[in-house]
Q: What sequence folds into this?
């Protein structure tokens, strides 16, 4: 990324932060914008407009409607209204009737003869069609790829209504029973990934095609890079007996990880090149520097270090300079903060912090260092941001066994993502529109 | 602190029981050999053993008495040899156990505890007497701390024990270190007793273990 472009991105990001960071003014902003650009439905941060999904006919139509409604519900930004039964509307929609039912938007989906889904999104207030699009649904119906394509339709509906694409068309990678797994964002299709036995700490490449992970071998830990499409793996050279906690830069050209034999330092390497890893931190003695996570502009790295005598979260420039303690303002009888994950919008770093000896998920704003505690029930750890910068997957034992849960950091709403054998080390994928 | 030597009584017991049963088995084998009139010599018997008398010979005769005495002598020597072998095996097992003796750590620490130094010091003469032996130290942690931090902490614990042994003259190249973090606990449970058992270094002989010599 060129400096100019980086600056432009940073400026846009700063403007976005300014926009959404002032909730009292956001409604006024939307009104102003509506004058020039849009009439009728405008999405306001913090509100959940009602979205009615009309009945669908054809094979698996009930499943289509069910999945669309659930995706919109899990997105936490609209309120899906799904009336049971009924017949699909024909001709012009009766907008006043939908308005009475609390809908600001209507999703009218049709299964076509060629096996695709035709979707029209209506603005009830303006009484007009906002957007029309088609999504191909790969065979077999109800299969994993069919479901993922349908999740893509949900995400597009969310984009049309809220101007932000949803996160239904994503997966969460995790560790279970000595291998790596993925599960779809809605909890369906949990399955083991071939070639990942003894894998830990999965990390998605931004393309969604590759996954880096830590291989727990009998003679050490190594970073492996797996091509999920070709089904091949490659060992990334480390620096010492143990390498762990891999993560990619947002542009996918840099792999960052922790490596060492006694003390541990953060290293970067090109995931597809042959160069030796470059050291970012300069550990003294047996200091453990670990769990790197890039900022979305790729210019900084959050990581944990016990250089002060106990684990805390630090940030540094991507070249290793200007390391600074981030988690300064948090008390607690036994300080221990770890597993930082920088949000995709750059505004927060999620991490785990020990409260009364038990891990809880928190976020910290890297600018003003304000801290928000997000969990309190059970032991909660290892947060991973969804691409929307709003939802987090994490490990919790609140149900009695260690499982993955999803938390909406804005509303506080939680849902259980995995069931069955113990699951941990969640890594939320990028949006998987093009990949696979 | 909870007792770390819990393993010791079991091991001692096993050391005593096993050779005894081996010895009785050997004696029984000898008797069978004699009875069956087999010409095969027991490997450990230096005295020549000729054809054993026919078992159903009518009445005593000098040949059979001499043969019986020779068999008794052979059994005595065999027993002595097996006693020697038993002592050697016990000493070897002792050396092996000492080499593999687990050491324990305090919470979130990799320093060798004072009460664990003896266990490490005892390994030094065995390693010195067996220059072909290579060992692997595996560091483990309790279940507190993050999964990934524990991988690093376990590594630090194995490195710490390695440093100690190297400082006492053992070649660096003879010691591999690895960590399993909190992935392979020996004790289940979220309490200090389980945690204390899991914060440990395990020692494994990876090469040269088949010809272990006992230090003199």
A:
């Amino acid at each position: 990324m060129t400096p100019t472009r980086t600056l432009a991105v940073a400026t846009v990001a700063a403007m976005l932060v300014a926009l959404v960071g002032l909730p009292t003014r956001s409604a006024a902003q939307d009104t102003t914008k509506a004058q020039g650009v849009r009439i009728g439905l405008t999405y306001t941060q913090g509100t959940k407009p009602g979205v009615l999904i009309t009945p669908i006919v054809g094979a698996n139509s009930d499943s289509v409607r069910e999945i669309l409604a659930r995706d919109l519900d899990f997105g936490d930004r609209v309120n899906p209204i799904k009336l049971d039964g009924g017949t699909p509307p024909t001709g012009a929609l009766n907008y006043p009737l939908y308005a009475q039912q609390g809908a600001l938007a209507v999703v009218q989906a049709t299964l076509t003869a060629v096996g695709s889904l035709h979707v029209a999104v209506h603005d009830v207030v303006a009484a007009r069609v906002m957007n029309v699009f088609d999504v191909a649904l790969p065979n077999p119906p109800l299969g994993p790829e069919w479901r993922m394509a349908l999740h893509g339709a949900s995400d597009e509906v969310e984009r049309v209504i809220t101007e932000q694409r949803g996160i239904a068309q994503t997966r969460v990678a995790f560790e279970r029973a000595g291998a790596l797994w993925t599960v779809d964002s809605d909890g369906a299709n949990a399955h083991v990934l071939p070639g990942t036995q003894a894998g830990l700490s999965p990390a998605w490449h931004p393309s969604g095609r590759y996954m880096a992970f830590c291989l727990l071998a009998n003679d050490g830990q190594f970073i492996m890079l797996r091509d999920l499409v070709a089904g091949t793996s490659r060992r990334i050279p480390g620096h010492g007996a143990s390498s762990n906690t891999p993560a990619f830069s947002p542009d996918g050209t840099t792999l960052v990880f922790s490596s060492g034999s006694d003390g541990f330092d953060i290293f970067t390497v090109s995931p597809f090149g042959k160069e030796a890893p470059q050291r970012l931190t300069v550990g003294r003695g047996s200091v453990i520097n670990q769990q790197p996570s890039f900022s979305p502009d790729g210019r900084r790295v959050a990581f944990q270090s016990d250089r002060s005598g106990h684990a805390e979260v630090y940030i540094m420039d991507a070249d290793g300079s200007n390391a600074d303690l981030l988690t300064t303002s948090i008390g607690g009888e036994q300080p221990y903060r770890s597993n930082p994950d920088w949000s995709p919008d750059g505004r927060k770093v999620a991490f785990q912090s020990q409260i009364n000896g038990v891990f809880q998920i928190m976020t910290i704003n890297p600018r003003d260092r304000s801290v928000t505690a997000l969990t309190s029930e059970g032991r909660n750890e290892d947060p991973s941001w969804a691409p929307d910068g709003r939802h987090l997957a994490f490990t919790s034992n609140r149900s009695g066994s260690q499982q993955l849960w999803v938390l909406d950091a804005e509303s506080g709403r939680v849902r259980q993502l995995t069931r069955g054998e113990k699951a941990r080390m969640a890594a939320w994928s990028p949006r998987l529109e093009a990949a696979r | 602190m909870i007792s770390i030597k819990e393993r010791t009584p079991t091991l001692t017991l096993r050391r005593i029981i096993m050779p005894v049963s081996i010895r009785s088995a050997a004696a029984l084998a000898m008797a069978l050999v004699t009875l069956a009139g087999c010409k095969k010599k027991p490997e450990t018997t230096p005295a020549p053993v000729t054809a054993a008398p026919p078992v159903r010979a009518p009445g005593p005769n000098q040949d059979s008495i001499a043969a019986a005495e020779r068999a008794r002598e052979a059994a005595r020597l065999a027993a002595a040899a097996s006693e020697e072998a038993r002592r050697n095996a016990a000493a070897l097992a002792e050396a092996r156990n000492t080499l593999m003796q687990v050491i324990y750590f305090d919470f979130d620490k990799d320093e060798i505890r004072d009460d664990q130094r003896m266990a490490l010091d005892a390994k030094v003469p065995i390693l010195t007497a067996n220059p072909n032996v290579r060992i692997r130290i595996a560091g483990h942690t309790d279940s507190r701390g993050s999964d990934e931090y524990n991988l690093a902490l376990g590594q630090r614990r194995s490195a710490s024990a390695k440093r100690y042994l190297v400082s006492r003259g053992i070649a660096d190249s003879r010691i591999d270190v690895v960590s399993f973090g909190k992935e392979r606990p020996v004790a289940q449970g979220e309490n200090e007793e389980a945690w204390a058992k899991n914060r440990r270094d395990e020692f494994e002989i990876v090469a040269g273990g088949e010809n272990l010599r006992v230090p003199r």
